[in-house]
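Much of what follows relies on a compact textual record of a protein's fold. The record below shows the convention in full:
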Amino acid sequence: MISTLTPSTHRATFAIGHEQQAKRVVDLLTESLFEGQAAIAAFEGPGGRWAITMHFAVAPDRAEIRELVRLAAGDDVADATTFDSVAAKDWVKATLDELVPVHAGRFVVHGAHDRGNVAPNMLGIEIEAAMAFGTGHHGTTRGCLWLLDTVLRAYRPQRVLDLGTGTGVLAIAAAKALQIKVLASDIDSLAVRTAQNNAGLNGVGGRVRTIRANGLAAPEFASRGPFDLVLANILANPLRQLATPLALQLAPSALVILSGLLPHQARGVVAAYRARGLLLVRHLKIEGWSSLLMRRAR
């Protein structure tokens, strides 16, 4: 597992009147402190006031920090500055441990703490608490899983590709539901390792083949294709750019599930794939994100 432990830090916090003043104070403090001595952040709070927080790896000289705040923001703000410490904590793991299982058709994406709570008639997908992305809670992942479940109720593809696999959720879902081998690719080597680890964790390590690839030129695509189901949860621009090479990898009547789109981007993506012979079957919107199911015309 990748360590995501955040070390303990020391913190100084104060509030200030408005955005422009907050920006000016942050700039002054940044110039006054040694590089790397502190991380400074400003957040808007209730009533338009801004909270400014300085995080220090080593306990700072409080009198010195108050004096810097006094020079930057005045006596009242300096006198009201508070100091405390933040204990070491694995914030990613803590966040994932608090996430409730996500249901999408027959699929349930869950953490290790909910492993025993997946109903026997559901397909559980456990995501290791090592990465913050791809937990299934995002609207794009849920949309893809819903569409995948819909597809598999009437269709049994034999050659499946998960393009831009991330944590491997979609590849794992397809491998579990179909009991077949699935090819999963990503441009990021860490994502490839994470997806393979998650596939093993879910008992489909032998069925999910993960590769690092930019685009669709790698030899594995030609040897595993043509694909009759492609899952691509990426972003609008890459999806448009991949329309031509992806269409060349499709079997007749293949289905393609595309996501990572804002609703206003869906029309452009649909047009790009329609120009390559694919027709829109369904447009699903979840939590402000669009997922598309398209079919290659006969």
Observations:
- The domain at 5-87 is CATH 3.30.70.120 (Alpha-Beta Plaits).
- The first helix runs from residue 19 to 32.
- The CA atoms of residues 48 and 74 lie 19 Å apart.
- The chain has eleven helices and 16 strands.
